[in-house]
Structure formats: C-alpha cells, structure tokens
C-alpha cells in the first residue's frame, strides 16, 4: 500500500481504520466503538478494558516468547551491558508491582518516577501500568524545585527513585534532590522506593523509604489489572509558557493502539527486531519508543546510559548499533551535530559494521539539512526527520518508512500521518495557500494516543490548545505545507524554546530571574546555538539604586536557574540592560531581541515604544558575544 492509499483509507473512514488498528492489542473487553464524542476534545476506545503491561510483556510470554530479549541496557557510564528477556522482565515488573500493591497503591493512584537510564526506570513504569497506577516520570536533569512542582500537581502516593544518575565527570545524587523536593512540596507521598546504585549510596529515611532490591526480592508478584480505555496511563509534564508545567494526560487504550500502529508502519520494527531510541525515559520519546512501543511490538529495546560524545568518544552510537544489531535508530539532531563536530569525516562510523541498520530517525527539534546530509553520507541509510510533541505522543508528520519510503526533502519532516488532518491557518483561523507561512493546527478530533486533556486542568487545556482556532488543536508551531503536501516546521509561536532537543519554557526561566532581589524586569530569549539548536539568554533590568557589580548579578541568576530548574536548562548567559524594548501596549519584544542576537537584519516594529532601546540591547548583547554567527 502506498502512503497516499493509506492516508485515504484513514480519511475515508477513521472509525474503521482505528477499529482495525485496535486488533493489534489484547483487550480484556474490546471497546464498543473507536471514537467517543466526549470530554473536551473526544476520546478513543473509552469503554474497552485493557492493560498496558499485559500488552507490553505478559502476552509475549504467554505466546511462548519468554526467552526473547526485551531489554538491552548498554551503559558506557558503568562500562556494562545487561540483558533481560521478556520472561525475566515479567518477573521483575510483577514483583515491583507487588511491592506497591502491598502498600495500598491501586488503580488511579499516582506514582512519580525520578530515575536515570537504567532498566529499573522502564520496570517502574510498567509496574505502575500493571496495577492501573498512573505514573509521572520526571526527567533526571530537573532540579528539586521542578520535582516539587510536579509532586504538588500530581499528588503521588509513592515516588520511585534511584540513588543517583551518572553524567560525564560527575555523579548526580538523585535521592537528596528527591528529599529536598518532598520537603518543599505541600503534598507528601506515603512512601518511596529507592534503588541503591553501587556508584552512590543514598541515606534512607526510616519508615518512609523502602530499599528497592530488598522489597522486590521479598514481594509477591501482582497480576495485571484491566482498566478502561480512557483510564490515564500516565501524566507527563511539559513546558508551557509559564513556570507551571502542563500535565499531559495519556489515555491507555488510544496509547496502545497508536504505538502498535506506529512502531511497524513508521519505524519498520516488528517482533524480535532491535529498536534503539537514544533519548531519555523522562521525555515523551522515551515513553513511546524506549518503553511502550517496542515492547508492545514484541521487539527488543535498547536503554542507553551515555552521551553521543565523550562516553568514550563520538563512535559510541555506531558501536552500540553494531554490537546489538540495531535495526532502527532514533536520536535528536543535536546529538548528530555533536558527533559530527568531533568526527567530521565520519571515520569512526567506518570502524563499525552497521549492516543491521535500516534507517536513522530524527526528532525533537528541526533537523537542519546539513545534519541530515552528513548522516546520510556517512551512515548510508535513509535519514528520516519526523515531527511530533509530548502532547501527541506519536508522530504527526513522518516519512512512513514501514509503509513507503517517500522522497526526502531535507528540512521537512515529510507528510501527515493517518489520523492527523494538518492545516496551516492565518490569524483569523482561515486555511492559507500552499507555501504560505501560518500557525500549524490539526483538525479535531486528534487521533488515538494524543492528549485528551491536561491533568486536572481542563480549562487550561481548552485555553492552551482549543480556543484560539475553534474546531482545531493548536500545535504551537508555525510553518507551511508545500504543493506536494510536505509539512515544514519553522518556529514556535509561543515562548517555548528547544535546547538540545529539550523543550524548555523561557517563561519559567523569567520567573526565576525575576525572583533575584536586584532584578526589576527581565526577558529570556532563545538564541541560535550551533550545537544545541537554541540556547537561552537572559536580559536583566536592575532595580534603581542597585550598586552590585552586574557581573555578580548575572553569575547569581545563572546559578539560580541551575538550582531551581536544573542543569538541563543550559542557562549560561545573561546581560544587564537599562531598558527592555516594548510595544506601546507594554509587550516585551522578545522575537526582535532574538533576531538581534542571531545577527539577523532587524527593522524596528511599527508598534515599538522607543526604537533607540534596540541599539542599547544590541550593545549589551555584543558584550556577551552575540551575534556569534549563523548556525
Ligand atoms: N540527569 C542529570 N543531569 C543531566 C541529565 C540527567 N538525566 N541530562 C542532562 N543533564 C545535565 C548535563 O550533565 C549538563 O550539565 P552541565 O551543565 O553540568 O554540563 C546539562 O544537563 C545539559 O545537558 P545536555 O543538554 O544533555 O548537554 P550536554 O552539553 O551535556 O550534551 C549533547 C550535549 C548534544 C551531547 C546532548 O545534549 C545530547 O545528547 N542531546 C540529545 C538530546 C536528546 O536526546 N533529547 C531528547 C529529545 S528526542
Ligand atoms: P516535545 O514536546 O518536547 O517533544 O517538543 C515538541 C516540539 O519540538 C514541537 O512542538 C516542535 O516545536 C519541536 N519539534 C519536534 N520535532 C521536530 C521536528 N522534526 N522538526 C521541527 N521541530 C520539531
């Protein structure tokens, strides 16, 4: 079947399309229909009964595949490789679920997971799914305060953590961060389960903290608990425009169906194949394609604890692909740029046998044509850019590699996937002509697997995504669709920036900067960065009468962002200005400042209050090395 036929098959009869796709899943009770016109944006398979852990693990064991490899943990950080079969994974997950169940965790309870890239992180997620608990994984690069914000929003009964994560050159002690977060949060979990890693022993709090290994060894395995198709499988917090992250909800039934469909049809992965996604379980990519997707498909997933470069060198990716016979590999463009910078000729690629590899997938940020071309030339497999978001849970636009490899246009993530009616709208909400820039929106309903709402924030969900263009979901991305139907993603329409494939809120950083006692007003902008795509940069106006050395204040705010949001924010540069450029109505001209920092020609907007301020900003940015040249 061609892509065009596939897309037409969905468009002609979405109900039949998704009903058929749902047959790839084991249901305790099939849903009476696929689409339910209920909730703020519709729901899928709402009255079916199903269990995600059963579909990811137990059914493969029941079908006689218990000896098949489910997980390969490859850790250049600890110089080790660990393998788990589906049978072993079932035992470990059922016991961990048993530990939680014995302490009263039941269907609908929330559990926060704060762990590095080790098999236990995947086990924790699946153990929650097994008993119908709703997990919320918090990325390890976030600081205690960010964890506390999520604890107060999700109100978990338990937190599962490891004693530490391993970053090049340093051990990140997670347990003290978790302790600080629990102290800071108003909500307190009943208990925690802490995995003591050999690299770092955590101090345990008697009566609250359970030792993971001991508890699992002593546990009675728990069975899978069927849940409704619209039971939340998880909450995953993502950056919005403010410091309060958005709790994206994923319903179980649609999640399973969308992943069962996308793993073979987009990534070309089937039972027994090895799928490696070099992201982190703290991001949506990790949820969908490190944990659930490959296991639902009966494939082997690689959990990688390392970096593209420096662990030990820029050949790590190619070594892992060769060692484990990876068939499809997925990473962020920034990781390929990091490899390219260290090994421009690709000499380390040539040292490894990559014959198992069929395609390299890129997402998380725009894949610039130079990076795509470099990877194609060196790795000699199709390089596939695809576009999606935490909210959607699976690709909106992709080259459907498992169906038909379409012609690549470098810089475009190719075409909409079945389920997504992607349209480009003008400010008035009218579709624009092909090739014209506009806001990218998706006609409702969204397909299975996408967010039905935000966690206990339905109004915010409507305001953030549905109200601006009635009848559409607003993606927050701007771009265009060309004459051939290819989608081009050019920029965000909000204050979200993308740093090394990590989605960050400039609004959240501004909240931290504003809390410095010397700061009267501030703005954080995303400036072009040759490695990370974008980097945050802060501009500060100081309060009258402040006499502290501006260099000291900028150093302090850099430290504050690292402490409050986390190292992942990569906030390293700030400068002091007398005034911020604003429109006459008082809106700070962030995009104009970002253009100045990127060395682009800037025309003072007609609405600007005082054009002379732009020269002051230009001088201040020059003082911290901007513009530094085009990417
Ligand atoms: N736990 C604790 N700290 C973490 C962390 C984690 N899980 N992940 C990252 N950090 C820290 C890093 O150690 C770094 O700290 P530093 O400021 O002390 O150096 C900081 O957060 C920024 O990390 P990162 O953005 O990863 O930058 P880097 O300079 O360490 O590495 C790349 C650069 C390009 C190699 C790296 O960004 C990368 O591999 N990116 C891929 C991104 C990706 O997979 N994104 C997921 C979307 S698909
Ligand atoms: P996240 O929710 O963290 O996955 O980030 C989603 C955002 O990252 C999208 O809304 C885009 O702004 C950006 N993004 C992800 N993939 C791509 C891509 N292939 N091309 C351009 N931008 C992308």
UniProtKB/TrEMBL annotation:
GO terms for molecular function: propionate-CoA ligase activity. Its EC number is 6.2.1.17. InterPro entries: ACAS_N, AMP-bd_C, AMP-bd_C_sf, AMP-binding_CS, AMP-dep_synth/lig_dom, ANL_N_sf. It comes from the Bacteria. Residues 3-56 form the Acetyl-coenzyme A synthetase N-terminal domain. Transmembrane segments: none annotated. Belongs to the ATP-dependent AMP-binding enzyme family. Residues 509-587 form the AMP-binding enzyme C-terminal domain. Residues 60-443 form the AMP-dependent synthetase/ligase domain. GO terms for cellular component: intracellular organelle lumen. Keywords: Ligase. This is Propionyl-CoA synthetase. Pfam families: ACAS_N, AMP-binding, AMP-binding_C.
């Amino acid at each position: 079947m061609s892509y065009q036929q596939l897309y037409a098959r969905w468009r002609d009869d979405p109900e039949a399309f998704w009903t058929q796709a749902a047959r790839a899943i084991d249901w305790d009770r099939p849903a009476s229909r696929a689409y339910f016109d209920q909730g703020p944006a519709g729901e899928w398979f709402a009255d079916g009964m199903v269990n995600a852990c059963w579909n990811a693990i137990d059914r493969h064991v029941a079908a006689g595949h218990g000896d098949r490899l489910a997980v390969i943990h490859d850790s250049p950080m600890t110089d080790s490789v660990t393998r788990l079969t589906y049978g072993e994974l079932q035992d470990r997950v059922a016991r961990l679920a048993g530990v939680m169940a014995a302490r009263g965790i039941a269907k609908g309870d929330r559990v926060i997971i704060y762990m590095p890239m080790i098999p236990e992180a995947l086990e924790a997620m699946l153990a929650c799914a097994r008993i119908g608990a709703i997990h919320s994984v918090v990325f390890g690069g976030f600081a205690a305060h960010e964890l506390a914000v999520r604890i107060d929003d999700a109100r978990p009964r338990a937190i599962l953590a490891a004693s530490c994560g391993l970053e090049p050159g340093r051990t990140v002690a997670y347990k003290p961060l978790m302790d600080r977060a629990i102290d800071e949060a108003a909500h307190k979990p009943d208990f925690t389960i802490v995995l003591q890693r050999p690299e770092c022993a955590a101090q345990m709090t008697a009566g609250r903290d359970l030792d993971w290994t001991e508890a699992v060894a002593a546990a009675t395995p728990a069975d899978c608990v069927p849940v409704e198709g619209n039971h939340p499988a998880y909450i995953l917090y993502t950056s919005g425009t403010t410091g309060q992250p958005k709790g994206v909800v994923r319903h179980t039934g649609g999640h399973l169906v969308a992943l069962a469909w996308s793993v073979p049809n987009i990534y070309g992965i089937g039972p027994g194949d090895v799928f490696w996604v070099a992201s982190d379980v703290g991001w949506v990519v990790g949820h969908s394609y490190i944990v659930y997707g490959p296991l639902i498909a009966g494939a082997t997933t690689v959990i990688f604890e390392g970096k593209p470069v420096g662990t030990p060198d820029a050949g790590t990716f190619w070594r892992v692909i060769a060692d484990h016979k990876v068939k499809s590999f997925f990473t962020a463009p920034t990781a390929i740029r990091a490899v390219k910078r260290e090994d421009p000729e690709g000499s380390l690629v040539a040292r490894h046998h990559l014959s198992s590899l069929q395609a390299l997938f890129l997402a998380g940020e725009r894949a610039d044509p130079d990076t795509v071309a470099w990877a194609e030339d060196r790795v000699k497999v199709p390089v596939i850019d695809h576009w999606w978001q935490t909210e959607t849970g699976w690709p909106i636009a992709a080259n459907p590699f498992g169906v038909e490899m379409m012609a690549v246009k470098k810089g475009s993530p190719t075409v909409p996937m079945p389920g997504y009616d992607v349209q480009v709208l003008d400010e008035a909400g009218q579709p624009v002509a092909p090739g014209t820039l506009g806001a990218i929106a998706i006609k409702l309903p969204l397909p299975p697997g996408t967010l039905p709402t935000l966690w206990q924030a339905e109004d915010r969900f409507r305001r953030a995504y549905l109200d601006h263009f009635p009848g559409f979901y607003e993606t927050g991305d701007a771009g265009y669709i060309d004459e051939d139907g290819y989608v081009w993603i050019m920029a965000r329409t909000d204050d979200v920036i993308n740093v090394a494939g990590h989605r960050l809120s400039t609004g959240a950083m501004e909240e931290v900067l504003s809390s410095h006692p010397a700061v009267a007003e501030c703005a954080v902008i995303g400036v072009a960065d040759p490695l990370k795509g974008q980097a945050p940069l802060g501009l500060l106006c100081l309060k009258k009468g402040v006499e502290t050395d501006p260099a000291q204040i900028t150093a302090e705010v850099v430290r504050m962002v690292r402490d409050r949001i986390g190292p992942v924010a990569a906030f390293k540069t700030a400068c002091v200005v007398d005034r911020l450029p604003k429109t006459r109505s008082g809106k700070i001209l962030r995009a104009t400042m970002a253009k100045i920092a990127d060395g682009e020609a800037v025309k003072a907007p007609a609405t600007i209050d005082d054009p002379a301020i732009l020269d002051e900003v230009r001088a201040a940015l020059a003082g911290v090395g901007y513009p530094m040249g085009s990417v």
